[in-house]
Amino acid sequence: MNQFTHRNGKHLQINGASIYAETLGEASKPALLMLHGGMLDIENFNAITAPLAEKYFLVGMDSRGQGASSLGDKGLSYALLQSDAQAVAAHFGLQRYGVIGFSDGGIVGLRMASAADSRVDKLVAIGAHAHPAPGDKSFDIYRQITAQSWRQKFPEMVDDYEALSPDRDFDALVPAVMKMWLDEGPDGYPGDSCVRIRCPLLLVRGDDDHLVSRASVNALLAQLPKARYLSIPFAGHEAHKDQTTMLTLALERFLAESPRP
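The structure corresponding to this sequence follows.
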């Protein structure tokens, strides 16, 4: 079926947390590390995994505290998620690999590609920015979120969390995520460090994305004039689910044409 199911993966002990990882496709093929968005898990990518798994070795991981991964005792930060992702890639012996990241996963992917010792040879960042642009509403939205408000607005997501989580402590997860989303320090958004990105980059934004503004994407594109940009009409933050066919066509072209070092 070539979809993530949380049935055939493994738990890796990484930096004080149990991180769940699962693979699709053949290990002999070029590797793609799949990094999901906040408060979600790897099954959020299932709309696009089937065609990708035919040509690539997909490594999906649940971010710490989310999906089937434990939170541990170190809180959450984009720097810590970056370290976790690099450790998962090393566990599977990935020397060079692409990254497809959505939202938080895209932000982590930007951090990974910006690193001096980066092993990322292609990056697709969906619904992600290097930092919210001045005047963006995202921080105002984040400051109003509580565990209770999330339960009321997204009950299905909370049900998924309860079904998969080894912690089952949603009241502890939400403030940890909110702290990460509001972190403007060096462990947070990649910001100007993105100018160091050397791998091919595809930025994807749904035209109706309420969390990632055009201004924040334009600021990142100004730093990286060779990056490709896909603006998807009739799509919101989850562009990979709202307009799957359009995104899949773009992914096939980008992944095939961009040279792997």
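The chain has a mean pLDDT of 96.
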